[in-house]
Structure formats: C-alpha cells, structure tokens
C-alpha cells in the first residue's frame, strides 16, 4: 500500500500489517524473520518515520483503555488509543492530557515514541515525564515491562525512540486534573522578533501555555513579527464545550495555489486581524486549532510539504532565529505562519528532541530541489549554533548532519543493539539519518 | 433518550462489533460480549467500563461447537438477569473465493460459521425472546448475499441464506412482538477484510460509521439496513441486471 506521513512527502509502497493482539504481533515479529518492521499509529509524523517498504505494522487498532484511577489520574491503555479518545473520554470528567502536541489525532504509542512536547514545554517538559511504565514487544517476541525502576535503559531508549526499540503495546501515564475545559488566553502582537523573544521570556513563569504564530515572510524591521497566545487554565467555566462543525479539505489544492504573493498577503492579513487582549477559549480551540479542518495537509497539493522544526539553544537563540528567518524569506518558498515556542528542560529519552531554547516550526511546500536546498541551508545554520531538528517532523536531513545534532546517538545505538541485535525494527527515517542500517 | 436495554453481541471481537459495542455503551445499554476468546473480551469489557462506566460481561463461545449452544444461551440469559432485550449476531468468516473453492473443508467451514450456526443460535434466541414477547434480533448478513458474483459467491451463498433466514424469522416473530433486523454492510474496513479491500476507496466505510447506522436501525426497528445507505441503490442496480448479461460480467 502506498503510504506517506502527514506531509504527503515522501510516499513509499509499504507492505502493511494490521495485527492488534499481543500474541499476533509477537508471532509477526518472530515470523517474518528477514523482514524489518516499523510500528505506525495514525500516520501523523510528517516525514518517513512510519514508512518502511519491508513492513509497516499499523497498531492503531490496539485502542482499548485498560484502567483509570480517579484518585490520582493514572491511565493505563493500549498504545493505539488516540489522544482524541483520551480527551473525549476524560475531559468531561475533569482530566486532560499532561502534555499534548498540536493535534489530538495521534496515538499514545506514537506520542511516546516521538516524546512529544506541547505549549507547556517550558513548564512541564515532554510527555515522557508523565509516562510511568511501558509494555514493549521486543525483537525476540517477548514483552518487556519497562519503567524508571525496571529496564530503565529500554524505557529511556523507547521514549523518543521513534519505534526503533520495539512495538509499544501499552502504557501507564498520568492525566492532569483540570478545573474547566477552558483557558484564559492573552493575545499579544509583537512587531518583530526582538519584541517577541522579550515578551516570551517575561511571560515564562506566568503562563503554563504559550505559543507564537510567527510570520516568516515578513522582513526588514518586521522580521519575525509574531502573535503570542499565552494562556492559563480558567477555573469555574465547566467541562462542557459546544461542538464545532468539522470542516474538510476533500481534495488536494493545486500546488500553485500558494505562491509567495498569496501567502505573504495571507500572513499579513492574519497578523492585522488579531486583537490584543484576553479571551476565554475552550481546550479544543486553543490546543487543536487545525484539527477543525480534516486533511488540512492537502492544502499543499499532491507534492506535499515538509515541516522543518528547528531547535536552537537559549544562549544564541536570537542570532540563530534571525538567520533561519532570513534564509526562509530569501528562499522565496511560500511558508505559512510558523510556530515559535520556548522550550524547557531536556526529556529523559535518549533521542528526545527538546532542550532549553527556542523552537521554530515551519511548513515548506515541496518544490523538489529548492526545498531540499533550503532545508540544507537551515541545517547548516543549526549546526553552527548547536541546534537540532525533530525526528517526528523530518523528511530530508542526512546522517552526518543528524549525528552532529544528536551527540547521544551512540548511546541510543548501543541500547538498541542490546534490545534489537538483529536490527528487526527499522524505518526509512532511521536508515536515512543513520540510526540503523 | 431511549430506554436502557440489555444487549448480547455474538462475535464481539469483530471490527464492526467492537465499534457497535462502544456506540451502544455510549447510549447507556448493558452489554454481554460473546466470542471465542473470553480473555480478550474481558479486556474489551475493561475498555467499556473505563470509558463509559456501566455494566458489561464477557462470555466465551464457539459458533461451531454445536453441543455447547444450549448451555451458552442459558448462560447469556443468566448473565442478563433473565431480562435479555436484544441479540446481535455479528460474527462472520470470509476466506478468499479461490481458496475456499479449492478446499472443501474451508468452504464447509465458511457455510457452518456464516449460515448454519446463525440458524441454530437464531432459533434458540428466537424461542427465548418470543416467550417474553419483546426484543430485537439483529443479524449481520451482507450485500454479498444479494446476488452471487464470481469473485465471492461461497461467502455470498452463506449470506444469501442468512438474509432468507432473517426474512422468515421476522415473519414468524412479528406477531409476537419480537423484531428481526437484517444488516447488509457494504465494504467495511475491518480485520476480516484486511488485505482484501483498499481502505482509502470511497466505497469503503469505517466500522464506526456502520456501527452508528446499526444502533439507529435497532432503535427504529428497521427491517433491512444497508450501510452505508448508498449500497441499497448499488445492490438494486446489480439485482436488476438480467442474468443473461450478468453471467458475462466480471464482478
């Protein structure tokens, strides 16, 4: 079956398995002994993390909840359960995800494998901080229970391990008690990058959630103009949220629909339209604005797009961001509003993405060589500043660059070597960036 | 809000039945999940309890273990506190046509599971519900039973038998206050059809969609449900093609 990630680039024809029972999966892992496998959830990683011609195991059918403890928020569930299911089930009862990415259409297993972060990263860190135990189906077909206390190495390799240590069967994680299904959002317009960074640093301690929509086509004195959306939980507004109509994108837009002129105009209009001030906004609208448009990825046409998420360390953040933004606006590739976010402490996963600094996530339409060239340029800027890219988004970075960005790669390789000596778990991503052969 | 009922689902591990169980549990009904793997069904019970609260039971059974049927029906009735309202027969088995054509055991097994056991169990539950004068028996047939096609007619023959059985049973039970629903799903993306269908085709429906239609048809006491709805018209056209032409088509 032809598969791709959320960016619709690259596309590969992959042999697909959909076993869901633990013993069927164990048989599969042991049975097709020569074939390498990679687990896949809802296919929301952007690039080739869940692609593998020899075998993709779709585990999104493992979607059962196992137990929930109302006293402490501990949820045990199968790894194919979606975050959407967790929110729909537990938000009305007063519980929310401790960390959530910008879409709820990801599985628990996928979220752990990418050690996802969210708008509260500067306060709460990655999802891994709230995961207590995993059941991991390893390459020999056995089930390994791992946690911080037992099989710690397997636990830390699996958090952020992109499915390369085995198939996560189930997980125990803690949900957060919330007072209502609403946040109070403060919107601040920042005329350029300096203002945005200053306001983000000032607000770091005062807001649990923060995110900035940055116009990466603005240049000159407006370079890096940003709309910050800072928020804290709003108590006393209840757990009920009125449903919104789901919009759809039933077909691919022609790739020419977005050119520099239309997107520049869109970004400028978006910036002008924002009103500063406070407003009450429900969790769905604050955390998952794009989930309201089904298949929004088709906006970029059949050739798809890459999402480039850069992380730069705090010390040199300003200089690095300026270079990144200038490179993007010079490249002349239309890129919609990008996301700017302050990141906090590093995760426990050996290959976890974040460390203290700033991350900038941009959508870049796939225009073949021009897009690759831009990604190379951005890679080089990151290397100069000690930055890195995020595997869950990546579709283009090469092995040499990746090794320089992730000094912990050798220790991941040795952990993987112990868990999976024959290299049974492998993806197009892991081979491209040289995690596995 | 509909009244809370106690509903038995046979073949509760199937893709459609799993989705149906969640839909019915969300509506607040008590459920008994029956299937071959009782341990696995217990995990489904945990899932429903964790999601919705409420009362659910797992009950192991094997459709072609003929002598066990009497005891099984009794056990279900006990689990339901002798107040079983509705029965959904949702299990099925589909082998590739060419494999079933080449292997008599496989062909016979398909007929046993899809048709013979449905008749044997349907009769017992019909007696149970008829004595109480209420309830619904919903049986999963298939659009494959509406007309035999060369690509899938052993399965289709069994399902044609199921559809005829449902008609007769409905006729028999109508004056006793018991309703019979024939469910004819089109192409559904489930483990049973894995590798046989392209899940991205616009003709292929999700099990959740089909489950919503089934729950509604049970509520409305419909006679025959095509799900998704457009299959009623597709099958109407397919049935209207004269046999002299149909026999030459590659369907």
Structural notes for this entry:
The complex is a heterodimer of chains A (437) and B (251). Chain A has two domains: 119 residues, Uridine Diphospho-n-acetylenolpyruvylglucosamine Reductase, domain 3; 216 residues, Alpha-Beta Plaits (2-Layer Sandwich). Chain A is globular, with a radius of gyration of 21 Å. The mean pLDDT of chain A is 93. The longest helix of chain A is centred in the last third of the chain and has 17 residues. In chain A, strands 17-13-15-14-20-21-19-22 form an eight-stranded antiparallel beta sheet. A five-stranded antiparallel beta sheet of chain A has the order 6-7-11-9-10. Chain A has a three-stranded parallel beta sheet with strand order 3-5-4, with no helix packed on it. Chain A is α+β, with helices and mostly antiparallel strands. With 251 residues, chain B is α/β, with parallel strands linked by helices. Chain B has a single domain, classed as NAD(P)-binding Rossmann-like Domain (Rossmann fold). In chain B, 49% of the residues lie in helices and 16% in strands. In chain B, the strands form two sheets. In chain B, strands 3-2-1-4-5-6-9 form a seven-stranded parallel beta sheet, with helices on both faces. In chain B, strands 7-8 form a two-stranded parallel ribbon. In chain B, strand 1, helix 1 and strand 2 form a beta-alpha-beta unit. In chain B, helix 1 crosses helix 7 and helix 5 packs parallel to helix 6. The radius of gyration of chain B is 18 Å and the shape is globular. Chains A and B meet through strand 6 of A and helix 2 of B.
């Amino acid at each position: 079956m032809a598969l791709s990630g959320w960016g619709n680039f690259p596309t590969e024809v992959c042999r697909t398995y959909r076993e869901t029972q633990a013993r069927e999966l164990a048989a599969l892992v042991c049975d097709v002994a020569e074939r390498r496998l990679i687990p896949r959830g809802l296919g929301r990683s952007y690039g080739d993390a869940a692609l593998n011609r020899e075998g993709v195991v779709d585990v999104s059918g493992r979607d059962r909840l196992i137990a929930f403890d109302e006293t402490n928020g501990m949820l045990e569930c199968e790894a194919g359960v979606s975050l959407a299911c967790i929110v729909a089930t537990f938000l009305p009862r007063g519980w929310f995800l401790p960390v959530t990415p910008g879409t709820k259409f990801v599985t628990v297993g996928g979220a752990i494998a990418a050690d996802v972060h969210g708008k509260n990263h500067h306060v709460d860190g990655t999802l891994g901080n709230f995961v207590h135990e995993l059941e991991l189906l390893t390459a020999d077909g056995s089930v390994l229970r791992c946690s911080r206390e037992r099989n710690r190495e397997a636990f830390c390799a699996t958090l952020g391990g992109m499915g390369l240590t085995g198939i996560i069967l189930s997980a125990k994680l803690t949900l957060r008690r919330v007072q209502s299904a609403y946040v109070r959002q403060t919107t601040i317009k920042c005329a350029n990058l300096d203002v945005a960074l200053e306001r983000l640093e000032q607000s770091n301690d005062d807001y649990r959630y923060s995110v900035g929509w940055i116009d990466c086509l603005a240049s000159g004195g407006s370079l890096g103009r940003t709309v910050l959306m800072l928020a804290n939980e709003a108590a006393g507004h209840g757990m009920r949220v009125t449903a919104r109509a789901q919009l759809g994108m039933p077909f691919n837009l022609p790739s020419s629909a977005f050119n520099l002129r239309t997107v520049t105009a869109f970004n400028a209009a978006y910036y002008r339209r924002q009103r500063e001030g406070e407003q009450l906004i429900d969790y769905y609208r604050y955390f998952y604005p794009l989930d309201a448009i089904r298949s929004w990825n088709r906006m970029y046409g059949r050739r798809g797009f890459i999402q480039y998420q850069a992380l730069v360390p705090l010390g040199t953040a300003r200089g690095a961001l300026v270079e990144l933004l200038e490179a993007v606006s010079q490249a002349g590739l239309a890129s919609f509003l990008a996301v700017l976010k302050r990141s906090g402490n590093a995760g426990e996963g050996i290959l976890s993405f974040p460390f203290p600094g700033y991350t900038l996530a941009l959508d870049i339409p796939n225009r073949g060589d021009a897009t690759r060239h831009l990604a190379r340029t951005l890679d080089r800027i990151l290397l100069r500043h000690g930055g890195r890219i995020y595997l869950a988004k990546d579709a283009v970075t090469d092995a040499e660059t990746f090794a320089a960005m992730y000094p912990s790669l050798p220790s991941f390789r040795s952990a993987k070597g112990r868990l999976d000596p024959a290299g049974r778990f492998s993806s197009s991503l892991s081979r491209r960036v040289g995690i596995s052969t | 809000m509909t009244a809370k009922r106690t509903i038995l689902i046979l073949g509760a591990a199937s893709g459609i039945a799993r989705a149906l169980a969640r839909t019915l549990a969300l509506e607040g009904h008590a459920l008994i999940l029956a299937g071959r793997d009782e341990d696995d069904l217990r995990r489904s019970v945990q899932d429903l309890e964790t999601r919705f609260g409420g009362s659910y039971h797992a009950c192991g059974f094997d459709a072609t273990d003929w002598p066990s049927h009497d005891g099984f029906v009794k056990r279900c009735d006990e689990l339901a506190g002798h107040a079983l309202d509705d029965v959904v027969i949702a299990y099925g088995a589909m082998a590739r046509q060419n494999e079933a054509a080449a292997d008599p055991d496989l062909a016979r097994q398909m007929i046993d599971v899809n048709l013979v056991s449905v008749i044997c169990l349907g009769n017992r539950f019909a007696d149970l519900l008829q004595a109480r004068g209420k309830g619904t028996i919903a049986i999963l047939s298939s659009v494959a039973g509406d007309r035999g096609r060369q690509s899938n007619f052993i399965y289709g023959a069994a399902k044609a038998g199921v559809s005829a059985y449902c008609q007769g049973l409905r006729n028999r039970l109508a004056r006793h206050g018991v309703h019979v629903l024939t469910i004819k799903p089109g192409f559904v993306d489930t483990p049973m059809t894995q590798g046989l269908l392209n899940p991205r085709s616009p003709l292929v429906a999700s099990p959740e969609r089909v489950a919503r239609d089934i729950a509604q048809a049970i509520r409305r006491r419909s006679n025959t449900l095509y799900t998704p709805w457009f299959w009623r018209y597709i099958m109407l056209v397919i049935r209207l093609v004269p046999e002299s032409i149909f026999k030459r088509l590659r369907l």
